[in-house]
Amino acid sequence: MSNLPKIMDDLVTANHILAHHNVVDSFGHVSIRHPENPELFMMSRARAPACVDIADLMTFKLDGTVVGPTPSPGKPYSERFIHGAIFEARPDVMCVVHNHSPNVVPFTVVKKSRFGAIMHMAAPIGCCVPNWDIANKFGSCTNLLVTNMDMGRDLALTLGNNAAALMRGHGAVVVGKSLREAVFLSIFMEINAAMLIKAQSLGEVTFLSEGEVEANAKGRAGFTLERGWENFCREVGRPYYPQSMEMGPGFSKTDV
After folding, report:
1. Which of 1, 197, 230, 248 has CB 3.0 to 4.6 Å from 35, enough for a Cys bridge?
2. What is the pLDDT of residue 72?
3. CATH topology assigned to domain 4-234
4. Is the pTM of this model over 0.85?
5. Where are the domains positioned within the chain?
6. Which residues are annotated as catalytic?
């Protein structure tokens, strides 16, 4: 029996969780690679994340083309190309979050300011998160939105093999090998940014070392994500599906 309905329900839950934690507001979005076809991904129609319901979910090809029933549930997000380009470039990625995290955005525009992990829960973002500037390739007259695959692919190049990338004057992207991982990291990236702003006001900051980042990444057991996910579900009143269920190809039973 396919668990696609539960996976889709988790995607709805992810939208509500990210909104509850102030990672997204009326804008921002989260997607998952389709568990039965890695050349497809799913995300909501263009709607505020806190309002997303199961009927809003749409399926896309990696180039952003809508697939599925006609008429579709509604207008797709204009920045779906962020997700498609990252899924195209990173076969290991199963979830993409794009947000305008309020404590993260300032680090996208301050020159010579380093953004990286200062706390162990945010370690996977790394010692120094890369910052993508749309103007470098597409000029200084864009609206800063990623509205085609050329832009999405350029952003994916800056992301590289990292778990996150900043977007100058815009926000950030966060990726994970599971929905739980990307949501967890998006929340703690915002918390890390708030803590870093406070720490910088006190004096010189000690960032996590490369060794500490690596050790935390390797030691991030599935139960850590699961503990967080269960609590996040409780906070927003959404159903919790235990990690033990079989999620389908490309999804881990221990941390999705």
Report:
1. 248
2. 76
3. L-fuculose-1-phosphate Aldolase (3.40.225)
4. yes
5. 4-234
6. 79
